[in-house]
Amino acid sequence: MLLASFGPNDITSVVNVSITDDNIVEDQEMFQLLLIVPSPAENVGITAGSPHVANAVILDNDVMHIRFDQPLHKITEGDVAKVEIVSDHVAEVNISIIIQITSLTASVENYYYNGTIVSTLISGYKNISISIATVDDNIVELNEVLEVRIVDIIAVPGVSVLILEPNTTSIEITNNDETLVSLLSDQYSTSEGDLLVLTVVLDKILSFSETVYIRAITSNTSTSATADDYSSSIVAVNISPGVWNTTVSLAITDDDLLEPTEYFNVSLMLPSLLLNKSISLGNISTAIVTVTDNDVTFVSLSTNAYFVHENDYQVTILMTSSSISSTRFVVELNIREGSATASDFAATNIIPIKFEANVTVVAVNITINLVSI
């Protein structure tokens, strides 16, 4: 209770009411002033006039400042991000905060919400925690980023709230998936002049494009193919997002050269600058390719008639091959009796004819026996 004193001849009296500065964000407050005239004898004849009741309104002088506790949060895919909004004052009323969640690089399906939400800072508290769940999706991705922004405050009469920086925070989501890239088979067969189709498979799909490479190399066999037997030694394999397998073709040279079955190897290679280090080589990274020759050679005599005199001692027979061979091959010349008998020539009935590699003409000498008949 406060006392107001009036001296002789006074018609006014001033009374001071102290208001506490409490550092609490509050709505406007009010208290009532009631004029009471005490009843001692000296106040006889003094009564309370009108108005003798008044309302005093207290306007709050505190300002609440809100912001995020940090500008960046890092989590692993499948975890829940705990984003905290902090204040430098407590409030005696609930404060509703409008928050916008948007994607910078993340897929919408990889977190629980995309849009505006309203969170409430409860009266008497100086912080609020917001949980943002992410999906553990089984897809190999690049790191993704969400942005969470304090957009506005729903106004409360008499309460002052200011948004300070950082008023945005980023959530960086680290991928936790890995994929293995492999060849579909470790054995491939093809023929000269054909396209060798190679299939590259993944055990998890990608959310981004990536390029790996297939390298053709000679094998360690005696009939190894050479670089001339295929169109390219390195083939780029472009893997698109969302696919489980990709095929590429390698042209096999059609060379007109008679050859045995040849072999070479193909190997998968990962580039040194992968977009995502969660890609590794799988169980089948090397395969053997068998190439069947499609060339045919015709071996023939140079003519269908040879004339020789008995005293010429021998006749030379020319054998020709229609194609060059990369290796040695053997045919047989069968000598049959006609009007001449076996005694007329000094040769066995069957003569092996050897064509060495890259040779198309072979001469065979048949000796003629001298007779006196």
What does this structure look like?
The chain is mostly beta strands and 373 residues long. The protein folds into three domains: 63-174, Sandwich (Immunoglobulin-like), CATH 2.60.40; 179-292, CalX-beta domain (Immunoglobulin-like, Sandwich); 299-368, no CATH class. Helix content is 0%, strand content 45%. It is built from no helices and 26 strands. It has strands at 29-34, 53-58, 63-68, 72-76, 80-87, 95-103, 115-121, 127-133, 144-153, 160-163, 168-174, 179-183, 187-191, 195-202, 210-218, 234-239, 245-251, 262-269, 279-281, 286-292, 299-301, 314-321, 329-334, 345-346, 350-355, 361-368. The strands form seven sheets. Strands 4-11-9-6-7 form a five-stranded mixed beta sheet, with no helix packed on it.
Largest sheet: 5 strands, mixed
Per CATH, the architecture of the largest domain is Sandwich
Report how far the terminal alpha carbons are from each other.
Answer: 169 Å
Average pLDDT works out at 82
* DSSP helical segment count: 0
From N to C, what is the helix and strand string? EEEEEEEEEEEEEEEEEEEEEEEEEE
> Given this structure, which CATH class of the largest domain is correct?
Mainly Beta
Structural class: mainly beta
- Supply the CATH superfamily name of the largest domain: CalX-beta domain
Strand composition percent: 35-45%
Strand order of the largest sheet: 4-11-9-6-7
- Tally the beta strands: 26
Low-confidence stretches: none
Tell me the domain tally.
3
Q: Write down the overall geometry.
A: rod-shaped
Rg calc = 50 Å
CATH topology of the largest domain: Immunoglobulin-like
Query: In which range does the helix fraction lie?
Result: under 10%
